[in-house]
Amino acid sequence: MFTVEIPVGMAPAGAEMPEAVGEPTTERGRRILVVDDDPGIAAVLADILALDGHRADAAFDAPHALERLEQGGEYALIICDIKMPGPDGPELYRDVVRRFPRLARRFIFLTGDVVGQERADFTDEIGAIVVPKPLDLEQLRRAVRRALRVLDR
């Protein structure tokens, strides 16, 4: 079980206003794979992405994610928890790049830990977007839009 907390109040002056969930963008309707070892988090993120107009699938570990990709999953993005038991996010990334090189620039990593230097070096080296946990849904949405815009160039 998990709790979602939504703050109530006014945004600070000068704060970026989030897009409305239903607002059409050129980044909608993409297929996105969410990989998180917590099935509840993976399912909720997939549902949120679906509400934003995407087609999202959830995988609960690296082997399950690779299985989806091998079954012909053409994903625009892979949103992946960086720290998972078994193969972690960086290990999954390396496997994906080896097997599906076209997906190398299509990762967003989620992290609930203070990112250690080794992981920070990894994400810097590959140029990945990192979104911290606990998740700020608007921050995640902005990261998804930004990643999709970059891919469309």
Radius of gyration: 15 Å
CATH class: Alpha Beta
Pick out the low-confidence regions: 1-26
Can you identify the CATH superfamily? Response regulator
Instruction: Give the number of DSSP strands.
Output: 5
What composes the largest sheet?
Answer: 5 strands, parallel
Task: Order the strands across the largest sheet as they lie in space.
Answer: 2-1-3-4-5
Number of helices: 5
Range of strand content: 15-25%
Helix content: 25-40%
* First-residue to last-residue Cα separation: 40 Å
CATH fold assignment = Rossmann fold
Q: Estimate nothing, just give the exact number of structural domains.
A: 1
Mean pLDDT: 83
Structural class per helix/strand content?
alpha/beta
CATH architecture: 3-Layer(aba) Sandwich
Order of helices and strands: EHEHEHEHEH
Which tags fit this structure?
153 residues, alpha/beta, Rossmann fold, five-stranded parallel beta sheet, 5 helices, 5 strands
Q: Can you walk through the features of this model?
A:
The protein is an alpha/beta fold. Strands 2-1-3-4-5 form a five-stranded parallel beta sheet. It contains five helices and five strands; from the N terminus they run βαβαβαβαβα. It has one domain (32-152): 3-Layer(aba) Sandwich (Rossmann fold), CATH 3.40.50. Helix content is 39%, strand content 16%. The protein is globular. α2 (62-70) runs parallel beside α3. The chain has helices at 39-51, 62-70, 89-99, 117-126, 137-152, and strands at 31-35, 55-59, 77-81, 107-111, 129-132.
